[in-house]
Every structure is written in C-alpha cells, then in structure tokens.
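Q&A FORM
Asked by: J.P.
Topic: structure of Solute carrier family 25 member 51

PROVIDED:
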Amino acid sequence: MKQDEASTVQQCMSSIAPTTDQFASKGGQNIALGSSSGPTKTSTNGDVYKEFISGWGAAVINISLTFPLNKVMFRQQLHGIRSHTAFEELRKEGLKNLYRGLPAPLLQKTCSLSIMFGCYEKYLRLIRQQAPKMHVIVQQSTAAILAGCTEALLMPLERTQVLLLDKAYHDHFQNTWHALRELKSYGVSEYYRGLTPILLRNGLSNAVFFGFRTRLKEQFPSTQSYAVNAIEDFVSGACLGAFISTVFYPVNVVKTHMQKTVGGPFPGIIATGKVVFEERGRAWKKMFRGVHVNYTRSFLSWGIINASYELLRKLLRAGKDEEE
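REPLIED BY: S.T.
REPLY: Here is the structure written out as tokens.
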C-alpha cells in the first residue's frame, strides 16, 4: 500500500516538474528582455512613469537657477557680442526684463526633459523586447535618437522663447501665449521654423549623453553615501553637458538665426549657416562666440539635472518600496 502511494506521489511530482521548469524558463526570458530595474510588467511601467516625473522635477530645479545665464548666452549667439556687453545690456534692461520669457523655457524644458528621460527608457525597453540580439550600444543610441525626435514636438515653445529673448521683439510680443497667437496667422509651419537643426541636435546629443552617462559614473569609486553619489552624478552630468553643448554650439547658433525671423521664406540649415559664417567674417572662432558662457551654463545645468534626476528617481522608488 505504501509503495503504491509513493509511486503515485512520484508520478505527480514528475508531471509537475516539466511545467515548473517551463514556467521558470519563460519567467527568466521575460526578465532578460526587460529592464534591469524590475522583472514584472507592473513594476516596469511604474518605473517608466517615475522617469517622466523625475525628468520634469530636475528641469524645474535647473531652469529656476540658470535662466539668467541662458539669456546672456542667447544674446551672444544672436548678436555675436562679448560676455560683458551682454551682461551690461541685461543690467540696463532691469530686473523686470531679466526673467522675461521664463514661462516658455520653463514649460518647454520641463516637458522636454520629462520626455527625454521617460521616452528614452520606454523606447529602450521596447527595443530590447523586439530586438534582444541587437548590440547594447545600438539599442541605446536608437532609443536616444527616438526620444530626441519626440522632444521636437515641443518646438513651438522653443520657437517663441527665441522671439521673447530677442530685444528686437520686446515691444511686439507681450508673453509666450501672445507670441503663440501671433505666429498662428503665419500657419503651422511657422511654429516649426528651424526644425532640422533641432532634430540634429536633439538626436545626436541624446545618443552621446545616454551612451556615456552611466559609463562615466562607473569610473568613480563605488560608495553607499548619498552625498558622494550626488557629487558623482553632478560631475558626470556636468562634464557630459559641457562637452555636448560645446560640440553642438554652432548648430544652435544657426538654429537661433533661423528662428529669429517671422514670416517670409524658409532657408535651410546649410543656407543659413553660410549666411551666418559670412556675417562673422568667415571666422570659425566667431561662430563659437558665447561658447564660454554656454559651457559654463551647461556644466552647471547638466550637473544639476543629472544629480536632481537621480535623487528624485531614488526618492520615488524608495516611496514605492515603503508602500509595498
């Protein structure tokens, strides 16, 4: 009797084992194709939303601190003037105009960074699921470029920011919403003047940033200290931001000149680049005028963004862990 019972138990266990092994195999496959941040579908989606929220919060902190420096750099890009001249112009215009045009970059940058970090993570996980054998660098670069192209949907806000920062339009456009209404009469295409340099800048700069952000952080000694981690995040983000903004500075100069015009023909990036190059005496050095303020601002901005983003993401994940 006992032998019959033992035989029956053995048969049941043997019938269950393949099913268990098959389930474990499928579960392992799902984990391998997903992000390293979480194996389950629910946690993956939750983590992606946290990327959007963390990117938005990092942008708010950054813009609030660096807007005046950005205004100085813009004046240098537009007029080819020196730093002290741009500072003197802002001083004469007074405090009431110092933060003029803030709503546009605040709205644009908060949405842009939210899309940048959130969509990158979303695209990366989708690519890993659909093309798991693709090289990791190609996966990251593709996701970064797609995120950069998605950011370009917010271009109308960047377009109005250029007009509001240009002193030539101080008496023409009252604020962001007024500028958007005025541009409407020129058609939808006017909102997207200068699209090509923006796609070029967003896609390639994102590929460099996400491709090297983690690798650069890994060069620092491993630590459990929140303060040291924050410093490492700041330094890695700051160095990458300064490098990327310097390399793409001429692209931004051309973009600014394309967008300073309201109405009329739409010259391409090459034609506009030639005009700007001629205006600056065919000197490449003058194409980089304002780059000192630019890389200083970018060093601070991307240091703040990277450190704030990582801090906010950790806080959100810690809150979720406590709830669970």
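FOLLOW-UP: Residues 1-6, 11-43 have pLDDT under 50 and may be disordered.
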